[in-house]
Amino acid sequence: MTFVKDAHRTATTVMVRSTSSNRISRSRDPYYELMRRLFQEEVTAMRARKFLLMVEERQKAGDPIKISEWEDIIKQFNINRSSFYSMRNKLLGAGLISSKNKEYRLSELFSLDLVDMARWWWTAVIGSDPEKL
């Protein structure tokens, strides 16, 4: 039997919007907009947004969230363990957070992967000059 906390988290689905008016950079709440692209349910997106902001704040304060704090987090969010790990695994799979040294931290993998995809599409498929990206 595989537990949710041990489930594979190598990839996740991100919804891409086709109109410029839906760009995350134009949103009043970019974190929420990003989470809505990852999570189907609004309540889960809001929870993930809150968790991501917690990770960011604690990391900036020099006190990253410890993996062992999961019980406190599920109490704070009023969710069960499975829901927490499912949300966490999606954030890990998207490359938004990492869990190194038994701490949650923001990760650059999400940005690096999107930039790589955009560069490949721009140059290899469309045939545009990489300098114009």
Can you tell me about this structure?
The protein has one domain: Arc Repressor Mutant, subunit A, CATH 1.10.10. Helix content is 50%, strand content 6%. The chain contains five helices and three strands; from the N terminus they run ααβααββα. It has helices at 30-38, 42-60, 70-77, 81-94, 109-125, and strands at residues 65-66, 97-98, 103-106. The chain has a three-stranded antiparallel sheet. α1 crosses α2 (42-60). The model has no long low-confidence stretch (mean pLDDT 90).
What features would you highlight for this structure?
133 residues; 3 strands; 5 helices; mainly alpha; Arc Repressor Mutant, subunit A
CATH topology name, in short, is Arc Repressor Mutant, subunit A
CATH class, named: Mainly Alpha
Low-pLDDT runs of 5+ residues are: none
Largest sheet: 3 strands, antiparallel
Q: Radius of gyration in whole Å, from Cα?
A: 16 Å
Strand order within the widest beta sheet: 1-3-2
What's the helical proportion of residues?
Answer: 40-55%
Number of domains in the coordinates? 1
Estimated share of beta-strand residues: 5-15%
Class per helix and strand makeup? mainly alpha
What is the straight-line distance between the termini?
46 Å
**SSE arrangement, N to C:** HHEHHEEH
Briefly characterize the structure.
The chain is mainly alpha-helical and 133 residues long.
Set out the fold topology.
Blueprint lengths: L29 H9 L3 H19 L4 E2 L3 H8 L3 H14 L2 E2 L4 E4 L2 H17 L8
Antiparallel strand pairs: 1-3, 2-3
